[in-house]
Amino acid sequence: MELRVLRYFLTVAREESITGAAKALHVSQPTLSKQLMDLEKKLGQVLLIRGNRKITLTEEGMLLRKRAQEIIDLVDKTEAELHQSDEVISGDVYIGCGETDAMRLIARTVKQMQMVYPYIRYHLFSGNAEDVTERMDKGLLDFGVLIGATEIDKYDYISLSAVDTWGLLMRKDSMLAASAHIKPEALRDIPIICSRQALACNELSGWLGNNLENLNVIATYNLIYNAALMVEEGVGYALGLDKLVNTTEKSSLCFIPLEPRVEAHLHIVWKKHQVFSKAAGAFLKKLQELLALPSK
Hints:
The chain is of the alpha/beta class. About 40% of the residues lie in helices and about 25% in strands.
């Protein structure tokens, strides 16, 4: 498959129209239609459903759109890295991260980098460990910030001294809001909204005495923001990490830590034998310098 044709396909998928895509690409409609038909013939799959008003994707087309976007992103990233000047360090650094207060370290590193390398741009991708490692393994991310029980041995990594603490997010008017800590038995009869990663990796099974399946899990999430909205609306209680949701006086929510305490360890990882761009290499060096400084 030619990159040019993949770009054509992605534009048609975005515009949902041969006419609109041809205009955006500055090619004729017959040329674009022929390229797409040749692509379908080559792959032996129908990719597009050509309706009267708009074009939609088949299941095979949706799969190709996902893979084509990953291929184009990787090609664009590689070309940008190869075109960097030897004299001025510029370019892009791609960082994947879960939701954690440790992102402040990334922010501090970027702030320091801006003073020395003002032409570097930073692209953040938010997702759980599965999302981040998938994109890192494909070369779409330079670094990942991983939380908790994640297999990191296949990566080079830096373990952070900071940890996140597990607890229960709830409304301030809930029956458990006056508790200093949440013990396992408190979760037996309440509706729980739980992280999909925590369920998949059994991160809380030890704390629960291997009774995770006995929880009344009514919903799962991969990022806490939407889960917090469900908690605000009284749907249930969210198991999650501290310092991610506003629980100040003006908030209707509060966060109560688990007892015994359950901590999630944090790691900054990258692929083994990674050949960094100049921008990514400079970022890692600055990050290591900041980690070596005494904490304030």
